[in-house]
TrEMBL record:
<dbReference type="Pfam" id="PF16188">
    <property type="entry name" value="Peptidase_M24_C"/>
</dbReference>
<dbReference type="InterPro" id="IPR050422">
    <property type="entry name" value="X-Pro_aminopeptidase_P"/>
</dbReference>
<feature type="domain" description="Peptidase M24 C-terminal">
    <location>
        <begin position="547"/>
        <end position="606"/>
    </location>
</feature>
<keyword id="KW-0479">Metal-binding</keyword>
<dbReference type="InterPro" id="IPR000994">
    <property type="entry name" value="Pept_M24"/>
</dbReference>
<dbReference type="Pfam" id="PF01321">
    <property type="entry name" value="Creatinase_N"/>
</dbReference>
<dbReference type="Pfam" id="PF00557">
    <property type="entry name" value="Peptidase_M24"/>
</dbReference>
<protein>
    <submittedName>
        <fullName>M24 family metallopeptidase</fullName>
    </submittedName>
</protein>
<dbReference type="InterPro" id="IPR032416">
    <property type="entry name" value="Peptidase_M24_C"/>
</dbReference>
<keyword id="KW-0378">Hydrolase</keyword>
<comment type="similarity">
    <text>Belongs to the peptidase M24B family.</text>
</comment>
<dbReference type="InterPro" id="IPR036005">
    <property type="entry name" value="Creatinase/aminopeptidase-like"/>
</dbReference>
<feature type="domain" description="Creatinase N-terminal">
    <location>
        <begin position="9"/>
        <end position="145"/>
    </location>
</feature>
<feature type="domain" description="Peptidase M24">
    <location>
        <begin position="317"/>
        <end position="537"/>
    </location>
</feature>
<dbReference type="InterPro" id="IPR033740">
    <property type="entry name" value="Pept_M24B"/>
</dbReference>
<dbReference type="Pfam" id="PF16189">
    <property type="entry name" value="Creatinase_N_2"/>
</dbReference>
<dbReference type="InterPro" id="IPR029149">
    <property type="entry name" value="Creatin/AminoP/Spt16_N"/>
</dbReference>
Length: 606
């Protein structure tokens, strides 16, 4: 009989811990590739606890004598959601970074406790830090061979059997052989024999393949070991590689069963092998070192080339943005009619936007779960609508919609904030929205010297909010892939905090990032204006050195009803008018009838 309640599942897990001789276990949202989005087979945390967010970790102890013996750790994005979805009778709610999982384990596990973790779901750095905290408390972190959640999850789905497929070179812009040769040259330069490529988007980019194994990201569950002679071993489940894929890759890519990956790591004994400490799980390092290989911790050599889009990828992005922008414009026109009626809810709005994207005929998937936030829900930065939280879009309120699509030629990500009429938006809302807009324009129009990191530009987008004594608690920009991950490193635009990943990465021509300042008034409304931008070379008369700037890629109207015209400078008005002239130029040929008339009105100059 299947366990239907989360209480029964927790009880079964505790009995399994007893069988395996461990006193506790850590359950993250993760897979063997440390993916942002994971397949249904890897949704262990959701199965155990009911939590449906994209980031979180549970710690479960066998012994409950000192309390609940279990805790859920989430960041501020999920403070409300975790309480809606996870039973507070069973789990303590913990907020990171204020609360530390390692410290909670150390305080609650007890002297001599053995806390288990699955080394295929965590980085080595995480394991080392937690092991030290436990050791200081007289406890021990233990790698398990069998994940105890898997042992009790009776109807756990199998990993996806969807076939991999080729990403056409006309869209990729480079052959897989060319990319592998670049990695081989990097290996020789570093005096290395091989590199383990375990991040799914890196595997996809390197081999020019895509897949359908993970929602929202078109990747195939597999690993690559790339060698210094330009060849590669690709570890993927048998039956997932059609003949045309293997023929395209040729003999230089040896296709091997995914189950052989661990054994293949042990074959690298005596070699110097690169593995990325941020993208390769602890088990990979353990297997290499256990076989006598030298595991060299270096950033995945695919990460930076993947981030720098070549001309074909740039062209593809522009085509995808034009197509996506027309779908968004059709949605905004529909919303202008239906929103003020007070009958549309968040789920219906998200589904209608999805329908407009599907109608393009080229949509392969959404690039992430649409953030459809009405009124106070818009103030939850990474809000995800559910049946429990679904709200109506009320007349006289703010609606925030952050969404994107996966197309063969590009990945999109756009946020628009809309006033649901009738009537005029309150002065405070117009003020905050206009300050967000001013920051967006300031970043979009900035030129900067080569070598500039994203953290050096972050303040540009915040300055007008700071003048009013307000700010936002998320980064200003993230990298975006080409028909790959919507959140792609290594580049970011964000506050520099203690070497936070990506903030020290210099921006390079060809990188694509989001430009998304915002403002959030808890319990009332949220505002965000997001376009994607391409880093491009700039020529400045009389300049010294090399300079860069941004080309705005995203094309869709920004709501004029939320703009306080008096707060904009002449240069900002000029940007607004030029941007909307471009929106009209690109989108108008794709629209007709009332939608076209709406677009014409939305794009009239300020």
């Amino acid at each position: 009989m299947l366990m239907q309640t989360h209480e029964a599942r927790l009880d079964a897990l505790r009995k399994q811990l007893e069988k395996q001789g461990i006193d506790g276990f850590v359950i993250p949202i993760s897979d063997e590739h440390l993916s942002e989005y994971v397949g249904s087979y890897a949704q262990r945390l959701a199965w155990l606890t009911g939590f449906g967010g994209s980031a979180g970790t549970a710690a479960v102890l066998k012994d409950t004598s000192s309390g609940k013996g279990a805790a859920m750790f989430v960041d501020g994005r999920y403070t409300l959601q975790v309480r809606d979805q996870v039973d507070g009778r069973l789990y303590e709610y913990k907020s990171v970074p204020q609360d530390s999982l390692a410290e909670w384990l150390a305080a609650n596990a007890g002297q001599g406790a053995r806390i288990g973790f699955d080394p295929w779901l965590h980085t080595r750095g995480w394991a080392n830090a937690v092991a030290k905290a436990l050791a200081d408390a007289g406890a021990e972190l233990v790698a398990v061979e069998t994940n105890p959640v898997d042992a009790v999850w009776q109807d756990q789905p199998a990993p996806s059997a969807a076939p991999a497929f080729i990403q056409d070179e006309a869209l990729a812009g480079r052959s897989s052989a060319d990319k592998r040769a670049e990695v081989a040259e990097w290996l020789k330069t570093k005096k290395l024999d091989a590199a383990v490529i375990s991040a799914l988007d890196s595997v996809a980019w390197l081999l020019n393949i895509r897949g359908a194994d993970v929602d929202r990201t078109p990747v195939a569950l597999s690993y690559v070991i790339a060698h210094a002679d330009g060849t590669a071993d690709w570890f993927i489940e048998p039956g997932k590689v059609p003949a045309e894929v293997s023929a395209k890759l040729g003999n230089a890519v040896r296709i091997r069963p995914r189950a052989d990956f661990t054994a293949a790591l042990t074959e690298l004994g005596g070699q110097r092998v690169a593995a990325d400490p941020e993208r390769a799980v602890a088990a990979i390092f353990a297997a290499l070192e256990g076989a006598g290989a030298t595991a060299v911790p270096l950033t995945d050599p695919v990460v930076l080339p993947k981030a720098i889009k070549n001309p074909a990828e740039q062209s593809g992005h522009r085509a995808a943005q034009a197509r996506d922008g027309a779908a968004v414009a059709r949605f905004l026109h529909w919303l202008s009619i239906e929103g003020p009626k007070g009958t549309v809810d968040e789920i219906a709005a998200a589904e209608r936007l999805h329908e407009f994207r599907r109608a393009t005929g080229d949509l392969r998937d959404l690039s992430f779960d649409t953030i459809s936030g009405a009124g106070p829900n818009g103030a939850i930065v990474h809000y995800r609508v559910s049946e429990e939280t679904n709200r109506k879009l009320e007349p006289g309120s703010v609606f925030l919609v952050d969404s994107g699509g996966q197309y063969p030629d590009g990945t999109t990500d756009i946020t628009r904030t809309v006033w649901i009429g009738p009537g005029e938006a309150p002065a405070e809302v117009r003020d905050r929205n206009t300050r967000v807009l001013k920051g967006h324009i300031r970043l979009a129009t900035q030129t900067f010297p080569a070598g500039t990191a994203g953290s050096q530009l972050d303040t540009l987008a915040r300055q007008f909010l700071w003048e009013a004594g307000v700010d936002y608690a998320h980064g200003t920009g993230h990298g975006v892939g080409s028909f790959l991950a919507v959140h792609e490193g290594p580049q970011r635009i964000a506050k520099a905090r203690g070497g936070q990943a990506g903030t020290d990465q210099e921006l390079l021509a060809g990188m694509i990032l989001s430009n998304e300042p915002g403002y959030y008034k808890t319990g009332e409304y949220g505002i965000r204006i997001e376009n994607l931008v391409l880093v491009e070379e700039r020529t400045i008369a009389g300049s010294e050195g090399d300079w860069l700037g941004f080309e705005t890629l995203t094309l869709a109207p920004i709501d004029k009803a939320l703009v306080e015209r008096s707060l904009l400078s002449p240069a900002e008005v000029e940007w607004w008018n030029a941007y909307h002239a471009r929106v009209r130029e690109v989108l108008a040929p794709q629209l007709e009838g009332e939608a076209l008339a709406w677009l014409e009105d939305a794009c009239t100059p300020l």
